[in-house]
Amino acid sequence: MVGTGKDLFDFIAGTLASFVDTEDESLKAHFAQSGKVRESGFAFSFPVRQTSVKSGIVIHWTKGFKVDDAVGKDIVKQFQDAISRSGHQIAISALVNDTVGTLAGGRFNFEEETMIGCIIGTGTNACYVERADSVQKWADPLPKSGQMVINMEWGNFHSPFLPRTFADDIVDKDSVNPGDQWFEKMISGMYLGEIVRLVLARMAEEAQLFGGSPPAKLLEKLSLGTPHVSKMHADASPDLQVVAEVLEDVYGIETTTLEERKIVREVCDILGKRGGRLAAAGLYGILKKIGRTERSQNGFQQKKKTVIAMDGGLFEHHEPYRAYMEEALHELMGSEALYEVSLRLQNDGSGVGAALLAASHSQFK
């Protein structure tokens, strides 16, 4: 995650090569006899200035990555060069942001109209289908469809109205990209565990949450992962036994009162709720932009269906977070909404969508 572009892409190319080496012998023979080369889509979940369907310049890194010598260069060429060094012939036929891949996968798999692709995992981002004539920076002839997919890079959204806390300020200051990706740092999986830890540490220091001095490990950066938070948040047992187990396993706190465990779970709930509702607000903003928040005129019109294709481990595995997201989106849309909006998991959506888009741009079709 931190190093040189060569190291990063040699690692990815090596992983891809290992996968190709497991292919059936008949498939290998097919490529050898036909003269064709394997083609691949490349789902790349970082900001790029896309210059063609299979080229793009890295703008900057997010999600804790810091590979400075790759910035300002064509990301596909860097990957293609690494594939060549691995001794394999694989052509990248489509460079796809992971949200765009998720949107494409949703369009392929779901019957209802998919208008938005959204990732909430380690990081977060969203894309949506826009009217092409609304894209002011587009200088070329408009596409025949009259539509264009917009990759928002919404993780970098800043606003004085975001409900930030001391913990958000510390997380931002200690990150590899201070001042950037505020929205991502408030709602995504890479940061949620650390925000919860910072709140619990302050409560332990100022209010003796766990009695006496705070546990030493609780004061260590990044000692609480988001999977731990998810487990504690989802604990529905009467005595909050899962919370007790996590506190003992991670921080060596062998004895806790039920009241202390309730407070810990409440902190997880408050911050999970904040993240889910902020994510829903972002999605509602997109729906409003594309005219999908209209109200039914008489209450008897049949609702039109719109799908938001979702991917990412936080959305998939953190059930209370997902429930808060759905609740807030329903609340914002209102009961008289003309459109029925559903969040639909598109598992491995970015990879599936990248493969579909690579196939549609194959040089051999």
From TrEMBL:
Coiled coil: none
InterPro entries: ATPase_NBD (IPR043129), Hexokinase (IPR001312), Hexokinase_C (IPR022673), Hexokinase_N (IPR022672)
Domain Hexokinase N-terminal residue range list: 1-106
Associated pathway: Carbohydrate metabolism; hexose metabolism; Carbohydrate degradation; glycolysis; D-glyceraldehyde 3-phosphate and glycerone phosphate from D-glucose: step 1/4
Pfam families assigned to the protein according to its UniProt record, in alphabetical order: Hexokinase_1 (PF00349), Hexokinase_2 (PF03727)
One GO location term (cellular component): mitochondrion
Reactions this protein catalyses: a D-hexose + ATP = a D-hexose 6-phosphate + ADP + H(+); D-fructose + ATP = D-fructose 6-phosphate + ADP + H(+)
Listed GO biological process terms: glycolytic process; hexose metabolic process; intracellular glucose homeostasis
SUPFAM superfamilies: Actin-like ATPase domain (SSF53067)
Enzyme class: transferase
Similarity comment: family membership: Belongs to the hexokinase family.
Name of this chain's protein: Phosphotransferase
